[in-house]
Amino acid sequence: MIKYPMTVQGAKALEEEHTFLSKVERPRLSQAIGEARELGDLKENAEYHAAREEQGMVEARIRDIEGRMQNAVVIDVTTIAHTGKVIFGTTVDLENTETGDQVTYQIVGEDEADIKKGKLSANAPIARAIIGKEEGDTVVIKTPSGTVEYEIVEVKHI
Questions:
Q1: What pTM was estimated for this model as a whole?
Q2: Topology of the domain covering 77-156
Q3: How far is Cα 20 from Cα 33, in angstroms, rounded to an integer?
Q4: How do 72-75 and 138-143 pair as beta strands?
Q5: Average pLDDT of span 42-68
Q6: Half-sphere exposure of 37 (CA within 13 A, CB side)
Q7: Which of 51, 58, 114, 116 makes the best surface tag, with the fewest CB within 10 Å?
Q8: What are phi and psi of 93, to 5 degrees?
Q9: For residue 71, which of 6, 4, 19 has the smallest C-alpha distance?
């Protein structure tokens, strides 16, 4: 059985999505299917088929969320002692040693990853390169445009 590491925020977001799909979308689609059925011949009823297809996707997503939540390992990084080491859930400030540019990433589970929000999947190459390292360490990361060297400036448990 696969376990999914997840931050507290990620677990909360999945629970909210599950609630929305179960309590809002499911009843809305059920009603839409009922209304489309009343329109007559189901073979040529586009509204009925579209609603059924959407219902299938919503039900599949609900099952997926339930499976992930059942197999989630929720990690609250704020309860873990700060050692300066990069671990799952920490927020890390990195500085490009060549350009001085700084970036900040939080190491999160796959479902939570969103590079635009600075949330990096623990399976991403950058995350894999920095997990286990400490503040002050330098890491070399292979990118499509070549190798980049970063210094781990700060590790935060927020």
A1: 0.81
A2: Chitinase A; domain 3 (3.10.50)
A3: 19
A4: unpaired
A5: 91
A6: 7
A7: 116
A8: -95, 125
A9: 4
Are β-strands 91-96 and 146-156 bridged in parallel, bridged antiparallel, or unpaired? antiparallel
Q: Does domain 4-75 have CATH number 1.10.287.180?
A: yes
CA distance 47 to 34: 10
DSSP state of 82: P
Instruction: State the CB neighbour count (10 A cutoff) for residue 148.
Output: 18
**Residue-wise pLDDT tens digits, 23-42:** 999 999 999 998 888 877 77
**Six-digit token pair at 115?**
């590079």
Q: Structural domain boundaries of the chain?
A: 4-75, 77-156
C-alpha distances in angstroms, 118 versus 91, 92, 133? 9, 10, 19
Can you tell me the distance from the alpha carbon of 124 to that of 70, in angstroms, rounded to the nearest whole number?
A: 24
